[in-house]
């Protein structure tokens, strides 16, 4: 059967947050004929196996911690049963499925055509789509956006396939009794923290002495120490050589760490060692679109590739910010530029705030202290620090109190705030407002002029000496 022939102004490959935002704006606001192609579930990584289900699970873990903390405040209760992982995951799945439906409804509202299938380039202007019923469509597009996102990697370790990745975390039907999480980035740290708070014996394997190594040293050191204080098992300076499936639901991990060589039997091994762009099926070679050594698509500040009518955004590019709001903002600005007549519309990638839903939460915007010193010189940098015990912990014994620590990185005579790093209770919600201030170019004097809200942890950021 001959492929169905279609034409459009704007073909978006990938139904994740960035692609959907760009297609909806191009069609709904500017009247472009847009088509979106997705071969999994609408919403991409964030909605299905990322930010949204992760934050829901973090809320459950946070509640578990709050229930333990409540005893210090005079509450007394007994749990009639352990955490019901199965019921929780079913409710979380139902919520995500509802979001998938909302995304599809929004595409219809903005008159974006949606095809569920797998796309591959035939030539730079033509894409073939194999639909769910194995029929094919061939689409000729004036402009093409590649927004297919990424997927988690497995390491080159014998038997690695017996473990799961972050995608598999959300498919676990039963709570593991004992888990090994391998990785030192925010995904590994978040998932290890959730497992641990919900009662799973958690072993976190990291390659160096600290994790979150792209964050400010203060964050690395204090959150690593806090995970150890909480009783998580940290395996530092570690590597893995083999993973065996023992056939009884258990896995055996062969590893080295600071204590030498060892093996460990666990229910689950979760690899969180990085992600790669989801380009394997796209036949990108026929387009001559340039990629870097890690196969990310090269783009400029306007999401242009080296091919005039092909654009890329989100996790398929390597801009250092694999964050959903970044992809959404970049997608909307791209549509404004391509179809809305806004010739200079593009996303400014500086001072993008980000958080880690660890235990405690971490927030960061701007430059780390080492990066600021490298960029501006030691003599032009002044650091303000505040480490304290949040009022939340006032009713607890000393060994039950979590850390709160803030840092301002200031530059020049005016002490412009070029970096802000916070960890402690409430950091995620707190960061958004301070992100606005830093994006506007706030100085230390601007912070000082703001009257403190007492008693809060946030007041420490406007009272630092």
UniProtKB/TrEMBL annotation:
Catalytic activity: 2 glutathione + NADP(+) = glutathione disulfide + NADPH + H(+)
Broadest EC class assigned to this enzyme: oxidoreductase
InterPro entries reported for this sequence: FAD/NAD-bd_sf (IPR036188), FAD/NAD-binding_dom (IPR023753), FAD/NAD-linked_Rdtase_dimer_sf (IPR016156), Glutathione_Rdtase_euk/bac (IPR006322), GSHR/TRXR-like (IPR046952), Pyr_nuc-diS_OxRdtase (IPR001100), Pyr_nucl-diS_OxRdtase_dimer (IPR004099), Pyr_OxRdtase_I_AS (IPR012999)
GO biological-process terms attached to the record: cell redox homeostasis; cellular response to oxidative stress; glutathione metabolic process
Disulfide bonding pattern of the chain: 46-51
PROSITE patterns: PYRIDINE_REDOX_1 (PS00076)
Protein keywords: Cytoplasm, Disulfide bond, FAD, Flavoprotein, NAD, NADP, Nucleotide-binding, Oxidoreductase, Redox-active center
Known function: Catalyzes the reduction of glutathione disulfide (GSSG) to reduced glutathione (GSH). Constitutes the major mechanism to maintain a high GSH:GSSG ratio in the cytosol.
NCBIfam families: gluta_reduc_1, PRK06116.1
Name of this protein: Glutathione reductase
Organism expressing this protein natively: Meristemomyces frigidus
Organism ancestry: Eukaryota, Fungi, Dikarya, Ascomycota, Pezizomycotina
Gene label: GTR1
């Amino acid at each position: 059967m001959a492929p169905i022939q279609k034409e459009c102004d704007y073909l978006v490959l990938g139904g994740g947050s960035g692609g959907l935002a760009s297609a909806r704006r191009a069609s709904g606001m500017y009247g472009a004929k847009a088509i979106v192609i997705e071969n999994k579930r609408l919403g991409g990584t964030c909605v299905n196996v990322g930010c949204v289900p992760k934050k829901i699970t973090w809320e459950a873990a946070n509640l578990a911690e709050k229930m333990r903390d409540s005893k210090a405040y005079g509450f007394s209760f007994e749990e009639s049963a352990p955490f019901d992982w199965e019921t929780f995951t079913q409710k979380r799945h139902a919520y995500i499925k509802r979001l998938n439906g909302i995304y599809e409804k929004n595409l219809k509202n903005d008159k974006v055509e949606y095809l569920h299938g797998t796309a591959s380039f035939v030539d730079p202007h033509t894409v073939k789509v194999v639909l769910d019923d194995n029929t094919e469509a061939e689409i000729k597009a004036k402009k093409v956006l590649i927004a297919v996102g990424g997927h988690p990697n497995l390491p080159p370790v014998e038997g690695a396939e017996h473990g799961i990745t972050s995608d598999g975390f959300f498919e676990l039907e039963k709570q593991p009794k004992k888990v090994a999480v391998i990785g030192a980035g925010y995904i590994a740290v978040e998932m290890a923290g959730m497992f641990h708070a919900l009662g799973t014996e958690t072993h976190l394997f990291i390659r160096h002495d600290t994790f979150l190594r792209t964050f400010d040293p203060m964050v690395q050191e204090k959150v690593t120490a806090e995970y150890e204080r909480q009783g998580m098992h940290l395996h530092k300076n570690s590597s893995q050589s083999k993973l065996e499936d023992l056939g009884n639901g258990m896995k055996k991990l062969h590893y080295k760490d600071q204590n030498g060589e060892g093996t460990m039997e666990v229910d689950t091994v979760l690899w969180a060692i990085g992600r790669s762009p989801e380009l394997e099926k796209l036949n990108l070679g026929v387009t001559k679109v340039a990629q870097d050594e890690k196969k990310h698509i090269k783009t400029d500040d306007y999401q242009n590739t080296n091919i005039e009518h092909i654009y890329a955004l989100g996790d398929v590019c390597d801009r250092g910010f694999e964050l959903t709001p970044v992809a959404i903002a970049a997608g909307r600005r791209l549509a404004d530029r391509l179809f809305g007549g806004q010739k200079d519309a593009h996303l400014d990638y500086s001072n993008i705030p980000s958080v880690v839903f660890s235990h405690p939460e971490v927030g960061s915007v701007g430059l780390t202290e080492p990066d600021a010193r490298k960029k501006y010189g030691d003599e032009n940098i002044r650091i303000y620090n505040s480490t304290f015990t949040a009022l939340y912990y006032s009713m607890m014994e000393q060994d039950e109190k979590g850390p709160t620590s803030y840092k301002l990185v200031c530059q020049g005579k005016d002490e412009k705030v070029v970096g802000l790093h916070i960890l402690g209770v409430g950091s995620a919600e707190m960061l958004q407002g301070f992100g606005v201030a830093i994006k506007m170019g706030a100085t230390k004097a601007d912070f000082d002029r703001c009257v403190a809200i007492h008693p809060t942890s946030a007041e420490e950021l406007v009272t630092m000496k």
